[in-house]
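Minutes, structural biology subgroup

Action item carried over from last meeting: produce the C-alpha cell record for Probable metal-nicotianamine transporter ysl4 (Phtheirospermum japonicum). EB confirmed the sequence was re-checked against the source entry. Recorded below for completeness.
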Amino acid sequence: MGTEQAAAVEISEPLLHQDEAAHDKITPVDGDGEEFERIPEWKEQITFRGLAVSAILGTLFCIITHKLNLTVGIIPSLNVAAGLLGFFFVKSWTGVLSKLGFSTKPFTRQENTVIQTCVVACYGLAFSGGFGSYLLSMDEKTYKLIGEDYPGNRAEDVKNPGKQVSSLGKYLSISFIWSCFKWFFSGVGDSCDWYPADLGSNDFKGLYGYKVFIAISLILGDGLYNLVKIISVTIKEICTNATKHQNLPIVIEVAVKNYNDTSKLLVEQKKRDKIFLKDGIPFWFAASGYVALVAISTATMPLIFPPLKWYLVLCSYILAPALAFCNSYGTGLTDWSLASTYGKIGLFMIASLVGSHGGVLAGLAACGVMMSIVSTAADLMQDFKTGYLTLSSAKSMFVSQLVGTAMGCIIAPLTFWMYWRAFDIGSPDSPYKAPYAVIYREMAILGVEGFSELPKHCLAICCGFFVAALAINLLRDVVPKRVSGYIPIPMAMAVPFYIGAYFAIDMFVGTVILFVWERINRKDAEDYAGAVASGLICGDGIWTIPSAILSIFRINPPICMYFGPAASG
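Output recorded by EB:
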C-alpha cells in the first residue's frame, strides 16, 4: 500500500515540477501534453487598470453600503457584484483599447481576484467604520432624538463626526430607472399617533421605546445564539480535523487506489498549495504590523475619545485577535460574519467598566475598534479562499487589501459626506433613519445604567422576545431544511420593528419572485438569482448619486403625493 502511494506521487511529481526553477509554468495533470496557463507573479497580478477599476467600484459600493446602512441597517455580501462588475469593467476596457489599435495585457482571473479583494476592503470600511451605527450614535442629533432628559443620555457623550454580467447590468438599469421614477413622487406618509397624549411619537418613554428595545432584544438573542453556535461548530471542526489528520494517509491511499480521478484532484490541490504558499507573508511582518497599529491606536484614540483610556484600547486590541479568529473561522463554516455581535460585546464591556462618566462614548468607540478588526479579518479570509481557488498569490491578496483599505479611508468618508450634506440623516421622518445609530446608543446607555429606567413592563416584553429569538433559531436548526426556509430569521424580524413595514414588504416581494422563478426554472434561478439581486442593489444605489446632487442643489421632485383618510381632505 505504501508502494502504491509512493508510485502515485512519483508519477505526479514530474508533472508538477517539470522545471523547479521556473515558478510561472505548471504542466497539466492529465498527461496529454497540454500546458496550464501561465501563472503571473504577484507583482504582475496588481495592475494600474485593476486599481483604477477598484477605485471606481469601491466608490460605488461605498455609496451602496452607506445607503443600506442608513435605511435598513443590514448589509448583504456584495462580493458577487464586485467580481462581476470588475470583470465587466476590465473586459470593456481591454475591448475598447483593442478596437483603438492599442495592445493590451490579457485579463486574468488573478487580476479579477485582486480587484474583488481591493473593492471588498474599500467598501468594508463603509460598514465597519460605523457611519450608520456607532459613529452616528455619538452625534448630537441621535442624543437629542433619544431625549435630553433620558436617564444615562448625557450631553458629554456626544462626538459630532463632521458636517453573471448581463443579468447584473440589465437589472442594475431597471433598478436605477425605478429609483429615478420613485423620486418624482414625494409624500409625507401617514403617522398613527396612538401614543399617550403627552408623549411625542419619538419619545422613548412611550411606544417608541418599546419598538427600539424589542428590536434590540431580538438582535441580541439572534447574535448570542449564532455566536454560541459558531464557536461550538468551530471547536467541533478543529477536534474532528485533529482526529482525521492521523487517518489522512489511509484515506488518501484508498482513494488513489480505487479512483483514478482522485489522484488528479490531489495533484491539482498540491499545485494550488504551492502557488498560494510560494509568496507567503512572514509571521514577523504580520506581528510587527499589528504591534505598530496597537501603538498608534493606543496613543491617538484617547485623544479623540477622552473617556476611552489607553489601557482600555490596549485590552481591546489584545482581545480582538482571538475574536477575529473565531469570526473568520465561523464565517468560513457558515458564510455569516458576526462582526457586529463581537462589536456589541466590546460595547457592553467597556460601557459598563467606564460607568456613567463617559461610558456611552467609550463603549461606542470600543465597539468600533472591535468591529473594524473582526470584520476585516473575516473579509480577508474570504478573499484568501478566492485567491486559492483562482491560483492567485497570497501576497497580491494582502497588498490589494492594504490598497483597498487605504482607498476606503478616503472614499468612505467622502461618500458619507455626500449623504450628510444632501439628506436629513438620522431623522425619524427621513428615508435615511440610520436605525442602528439609535439602537447602538441605547445599548451603550443600557450597559451604563442597567434596566431600571426602561418603560413599564418593557423588560418583561424584551425578555420574551429575547427567548423567542433563541427558540426560533433553535427551531430553524432542528427542523428539516425544506421546512426551515419558511421560519423567519430573528435578525431580519427585528429591523421592521424600528423602521416600519416598507422594508419587510420589499423583502417579501423579492422572496415571492424568487419562489416563483425556482418553480418555473430552478437551474436558471440558482445560476442568475445572485446576479439579478446584485444588479438591483447596484442600480438602486447608483441612483443615490444623482438624487444627492439634486438634493444639494435644492431641486425638489415635481410631484407630491399624500395618502391619508378621506376626512383629512
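Discussion: The two ends are 89 Å apart (CA to CA).
Next step: EB to file the record with the rest of the batch.
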